[in-house]
């Protein structure tokens, strides 16, 4: 079987700014991890598109290049990358698209693959479009009484009546925390609003709620849903938002886990187009630590994959590419915790040691 794995930021399709360089490290880590897992399966051949200067260092990837099981298309320009993308889609039996939500990238790349006649692993296009739009997603969750963070469109009419401090603004279509800013008082917020006046409809405002930032994954396949162990996100707010990886499993009261499962099942019931690897960001509010609220949904591979794959001897990528096979439930390593970084590096620790 020929598998095409497309990671947008690694492919040469986007000229990254200095502020976005961290996203390239995350993208490279995800790409290398999932390609390594696919190449561990002898019946798969893998293709990808890479920018000219990017190299992958996994020994299995290097070996696969030498034996011909891996084909890398190199792209010097965005136009060349697009042509390579379409060529690989036509050659592939299955395509995995990994792309951020900003600039409508995840949905547009999925649409391009479908236009090429490809079978795309993952969520349906409508589900991708809905979850990428954080305002539309909030409205749907609110209409369905799904607990989530209060959200307003960033407009002058609402600011003074709705805002409480500290608060944050973020892109309506965002990923990786880009564009997320926090504010401690009205003067700073009003100053920023004046700077964004011409594009304020592209931003949302939320209270900055204290609590524990969690994430997990639903593997959604023909036979049902399988939820991964809940992890804790490591986030720094010292100089704006900075994602620093996470730990799996999270140190949370076991009594809250059923509430998280119930929340995710309700969300998945509302969005039947979700499929494959779907990441969920969750908050346990400080003032209601047993009442989880939904933050965001990422209908694609997330950085947490680099951690989850080390917590099991099962090959997670096989389940992503082959949704129809009746795999047994994933067996997670007991008594161990993984700490993973955005660049894909990770440390496996006994759980007792990690609590100290």
Short description:
With 356 residues, this protein is an alpha+beta fold.
Structure notes:
With 356 residues, the protein is α+β, with helices and mostly antiparallel strands. It folds into three domains: 2-121, Rossmann fold; 150-207, Dna Ligase, domain 1, CATH 3.30.1490.20; 211-349, 2-Layer Sandwich (D-amino Acid Aminotransferase, Chain A, domain 1). It has twelve helices and 17 strands. Strand 1 (2-7), helix 1 and strand 2 form a beta-alpha-beta unit. Helix 4 runs antiparallel to helix 5. It is globular, with a radius of gyration of 20 Å. The N and C termini lie far apart (46 Å). The mean pLDDT is 92. Keywords: ATP-binding, Nucleotide-binding. InterPro entries: ATP-grasp, ATP-grasp_PylC-type, MfnD_preATP-grasp.
Mean pLDDT, as a whole number? 92
What percentage of residues falls in helices of 4 or more residues?
25-40%
> What portion of the residues fall into strands of 2 or more residues?
25-35%
The CATH class of the largest domain is identified as Alpha Beta
Specify Rg, calculated over alpha carbons.
Answer: 20 Å
Sketch the topology as an H/E string, one letter per element. Answer: EHEHEHEHEHHEHEEHEEEEEHEEHHEEH
CATH superfamily of the largest domain: ATP-grasp fold, B domain
Major sheet, described briefly? 8 strands, antiparallel
């Amino acid at each position: 079987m020929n598998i095409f794995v497309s990671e947008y930021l690694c492919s040469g399709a986007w000229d990254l700014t200095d502020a976005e360089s961290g996203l390239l490290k995350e993208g490279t880590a995800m790409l290398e991890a999932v390609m390594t897992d696919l190449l561990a399966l002898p019946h798969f051949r893998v293709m990808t598109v890479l920018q000219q200067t990017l190299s992958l260092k996994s020994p299995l990837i290097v070996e696969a290049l030498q034996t011909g099981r891996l084909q890398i298309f190199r792209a010097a320009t965005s136009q060349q990358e697009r042509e390579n993308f379409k060529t690989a889609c036509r050659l592939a039996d299955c395509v995995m698209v990994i792309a951020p939500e900003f600039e409508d990238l995840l949905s547009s790349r999925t649409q391009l693959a479908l236009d090429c006649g490809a079978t795309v692993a993952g969520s349906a296009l409508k589900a991708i479009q809905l979850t990428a739009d954080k305002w539309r997603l909030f409205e749907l969750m609110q209409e369905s009484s799904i607990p989530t963070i209060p959200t307003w469109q960033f407009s002058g009419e609402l600011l003074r009546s709705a805002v409480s401090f500290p608060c944050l603004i973020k892109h309506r279509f965002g990923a990786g925390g880009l564009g997320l800013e926090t504010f401690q008082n009205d003067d700073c917020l009003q100053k920023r609003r004046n700077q964004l006046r011409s594009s304020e409809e592209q931003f949302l405002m939320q209270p900055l709620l204290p609590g524990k930032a969690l994430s997990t994954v639903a593997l959604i396949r023909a036979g049902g849903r399988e939820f991964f162990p809940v992890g804790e996100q490591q986030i720094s707010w010292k100089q704006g938002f900075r994602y620093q990886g996470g730990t799996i499993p999270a140190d949370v009261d076991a009594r809250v886990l059923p509430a998280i499962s119930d929340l995710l099942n309700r969300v998945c019931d509302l969005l039947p187009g979700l499929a494959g690897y779907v990441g969920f960001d969750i908050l346990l509010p400080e003032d209601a630590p047993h009442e989880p609220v939904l933050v965001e949904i990422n209908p694609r591979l997330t950085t947490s994959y680099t951690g989850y794959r080390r917590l099991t001897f099962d090959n997670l990528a096989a389940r992503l590419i082959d949704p129809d096979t009746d795999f047994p439930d994933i067996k997670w390593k007991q008594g161990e915790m993984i700490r993973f970084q955005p660049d894909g590096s990770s440390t496996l620790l006994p759980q007792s040691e990690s609590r100290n």
